[in-house]
Amino acid sequence: MAVLEEPVREVQLVRNYIDGEWVESAGEMREVTNPATGRVIARVPASTGSEVAAAVRAARAAFREWRSTPPAARVRYLFRLKELLEENFEVISRIQTQEHGKVIDESRGETRRGIENIEVACGIPSLMMGYNLEDVAAGMDEYAVYRPMGVFGVIAPFNFPFMVPLWSAPYAVATGNCIVVKPSDEAPLSQMKLTELVEEAGFPPGVWNVVNGREEVVSGLLDDPDVAGITFVGSTGVARFIYGRCGAAGKRCLANGAAKNFILVMPDCDVDNTVVALLSSFFGNTGQRCLAGANLVVVGDDDRFYKDFVDRVVAAASRIVVGYGLDEGVQMGPLKGPEKKERVAGFIESGLAQGARLLLDGRRPAIRGGYPATCFLGPTVFGDVTPAMRIAREEIFGPVMSIMRTRSLEEAVALANASPFGNAAAIFTTSGKTARDFQYRVAAGNIGINVGIAAPMAFFPFGGMKDSFFGVLHAQGREMIRFFTDVQVVIQRWF
Amino acid sequence: MRLNTASAVIAFAGRLEEEAAAFYERLATAHPARASRFLDLARENRKNKARIERSYYGVITDAIEGSFTFDLAVDGYTLDPGLPADYRQALAQAGALEERIIRFYREAARQSRALLADIPGVMAAIARKREARVAELESLARETQGPGHFGGTTLHGREDAR
Hints:
The complex is a heterodimer. Chain A is α/β, with parallel strands linked by helices. Chain A has 16 helices and 25 strands. Chain A folds into two domains: 12-257 and 468-493, Aldehyde Dehydrogenase, Chain A, domain 1 (3-Layer(aba) Sandwich), CATH 3.40.605.10; 261-449, 3-Layer(aba) Sandwich (Aldehyde Dehydrogenase, Chain A, domain 2). In chain A, the strands form seven sheets. Chain A has a seven-stranded mixed sheet with strand order 16-18-19-14-13-21-22, sandwiched between helices. In chain A, strands 10-9-8-11-12-24 form a six-stranded mixed sheet, with helices on both faces. Helices cover 63% and strands 2% of the residues of chain B. Chain B is an all-alpha fold. Chain B is elongated. The interface between A and B is medium-sized, with 34 and 23 residues.
């Protein structure tokens, strides 16, 4: 199969978009590399504090007029943006594969998820409505109004560089706020394409700003008193830090952190479909997603089922085709960078050192197309994993499956609930009662029942529990609308 | 050749539809008396291509197993684009082509039935609709000279993919 054409053919100079203008940053530049080919595809700045401040000022200045723009008029910009995204769907998807490494099916899935959030936000004229009650006392009425708050910062991760900012941005602007987006400095190009389309859609200057960079941009957003709140997706350490800083400054915050997701397999599962779903869960996006399966728990004391099932999984994983994601025959791409590969390889070493049994070793994968091995690891499967091992406890963020075994569902749920993380959990079974028991007892924000990637649609909230999430309201849908608005209650009477 | 991803399968389906459309366009040119019907078939092929792509682009997300669902050997589905000079043979060629496309859609739908949302349903629907085409081509062949024989399998007894 041929490799699809690359939309990014020359090194792109990434600029900021502030107050409706594209501006070059004075900050130091770093290179963005296509992890599959090793080629440099962009140079992205580490923007300075003063550049962040300029973006916040522009957003603050635009806010007054934007908040008084009728909601029905505000969402027309989003309708136009949605149309432009549909027209550019394939280009945006291929850019994601170039900048991140994910395979083209995954990139298209990410593009679709992002667009779905814009579609939901287009319903703001209805979704943002308040409520009222006549005659709360004789001759007195009362009503509640949801109002925008000002300027929000949107901080994006590298693993879903296009989609995650769209968990927030369309809801923020549709509700009448203005935003400053900080794209991932490791994968900024799909956000740059999105920003070009934002400009083409005609948003007023200052409503949607983009500042590229690293810690200094984050600090600038956290420290600026004109920033009303932050949305963030990343590691638990940084999520906790940002949540604390926002709390101290009185800002709203929604911070998604790390995960260690447990996937339970019951002996009554549909084996054929379960095996395929597990491949997607553990090895899709090369394991670099917060909803990825991490620990596979095979439940029950049927030794024969256990052995046959594990053999099936290992055999299927060993057939996964690894290579450049623009090759339509490739099922798993590289990790985003060599340091990420080294980190995952370190976990594999740790698993071996702590006594886990290596059933499939991905450290020397066959790479289709002969691309450099710099960022590639193949699917890796460990058996005989115990809860105390590092590979069972810590987020690996790579294509590593750790297989554990419990005698009962109760034991498996207890194992999952003992984890400090609670982002997602899934069960594969044909028993409704077993599935219901699992869902009821397990402490995780996103539950899959015969679904390995429990990714909520845009009209449902996305968020974990425990150390996987810091905040109250979650990303996407109605909760996001509440996050971006303050409620004002009016009680009135007329003499 | 084996296809293992949704992207590859959708692209292959598009190529089949395009090649079949081009075949019917050549058939229309070669046999002007039936040109209008053959051009309709070509248009319908391109609509099928658009429909399959729309279903894929409309539902592809990370909740469905796009990269891992298929293991589809497609050598048996490739088309012979040659157009026989003889009208009856050309109709037989068209029938064989349709049967191959039906088999492809049925197998792709079967493999993805539980995992790919709307896509297998659309594939199965296109396969079902194509059965009428085969019957129509057989009928055209009969009009030309006696009972037609397309050399392929009959449509009876095929398992419906849905």
